[in-house]
Design brief:
The chain is 26% helix and 20% strand. The C terminus is likely disordered. Helix 1 packs across helix 5 and helix 2 packs across helix 5. The chain has one domain: B-lactam Antibiotic, Isopenicillin N Synthase, Chain (Jelly Rolls), CATH 2.60.120.330. By secondary structure, it is α+β, with helices and mostly antiparallel strands. The strands form 3 sheets. Strands 2-3-11-8-13-6-5-4 form an 8-stranded mixed beta sheet.
Length: 319
């Protein structure tokens, strides 16, 4: 396993940020994001919250087990990446996690409208500092996501607002992942996270110093992505790949925790509203050519992915 040494670095405050973003994702499909304005102390607090949660007893975590709105605790051996186009996956991912989506109060417009997955989060009441920290991080990352939408629009040559109007409100996912060490005698197809593509718009990943993230290069090789202090790993999901008519590359990736210790990572997924219909943008379809992709509603695509990968959604197909 070689380390990637040519990952582009994107500074969203630079004058050429939009051009660099499009160039990075049209070629490599992944980059390090620096000068992102996420405070170091907030990132440290999120990792501290993650450590505290994952150190809690299993029976305590099970009291907020993943619900039909995809919020709460996901135990190890309960999710399998069955839709992967990159590998035949038969074994569950070797990770556990806590996940919080956009907070929707029971009397909110989204809940009353029956929006797919809309609802309140489940929070570990035995950790009083947990919710404030995660909500602060989610708000900060949502602001960053909206800034990046503007850069994508500019870089693709779209009209201003062509994408941004679909993020009112956005679909956001904040996940605290814990990967135990991989057994020395583990088979090759036992993954912390099996090879997959993220299904949304953008993923912004904070990771500890353990390593374990592996990305498929444009040449088809798997390469390690060593953590860079202070940087976020950013990759494109399938919805932005479709919106760009295939111009921006959705990044195949996987996780093998090859260390002797635990690995923590915090992905934040920034996606459009679930009712958004994703069609290739006019600016990305060459004159005289047909779009590469047919329209798809994000919520329909999402439901198919969740029901195919999580036992909880198979048990609650209408949730």
């Amino acid at each position: 396993m070689r380390a990637v040494t040519t990952i582009p670095t994107i500074d969203p405050t630079a004058p050429d940020a939009a051009a660099r973003l499009v160039d990075a994702y049209a070629t490599y499909g992944f980059a390090h994001l620096v000068h992102h304005a996420v405070p170091d102390e907030l990132l440290a607090a999120v990792f501290a919250a993650s450590r505290a949660f994952h150190a809690s007893p299993r029976d305590q975590k099970d009291t907020i087990a993943l619900d039909a709105r995809h919020r709460g605790y996901i135990a190890i051996d309960t999710s399998t990446t069955r839709h992967s186009p990159l590998a035949v996956v038969t074994k569950p991912n070797q990770s556990e996690s806590f996940i919080a989506l956009r907070e929707d109060a029971p009397d909110s417009v989204e809940v009353h409208a029956g929006t797919y997955l809309a609802g309140p989060n489940q929070w570990p009441g035995w950790l009083p500092e947990f919710r404030p920290v995660l909500e602060a991080y989610q708000a900060t990352m949502t602001g960053l996501g909206l800034r990046l939408v503007g850069l994508v629009e500019e870089g693709l040559g779209c009209q201003r607002g062509a994408l941004a109007r679909h993020f009112s409100p956005p679909t956001t996912w904040l996940r605290l992942l814990h990967y135990p060490p991989r057994p020395a005698d583990a088979p090759d197809d036992l993954y912390g996270s099996a090879p997959h593509l993220d299904f949304g718009f953008l993923t912004l990943l904070a990771q500890d110093g353990t390593g374990g993230l592996e990305v498929q290069t444009p040449e088809g090789e798997w390469a390690a992505v060593p953590p860079v202090p202070g940087a976020l790993v950013m990759n494109v999901g399938e919805m932005l790949h479709r919106w760009s008519n295939g111009r921006l590359r959705a990044t195949p990736h996987r996780v093998h925790n090859r260390s002797a210790g635990d690995r923590l990572s915090v992905p934040f997924f920034f996606d459009p509203h679930v009712r958004t219909v994703i069609s290739p943008l006019a600016a990305c379809v060459p004159a005289g050519e047909e779009p590469r992709f047919q329209p798809v509603q994000f919520g329909d695509f999402l439901r198919d992915r969740l029901e195919g990968s999580y036992l909880q959604h198979q048990a609650h197909p209408g949730g």
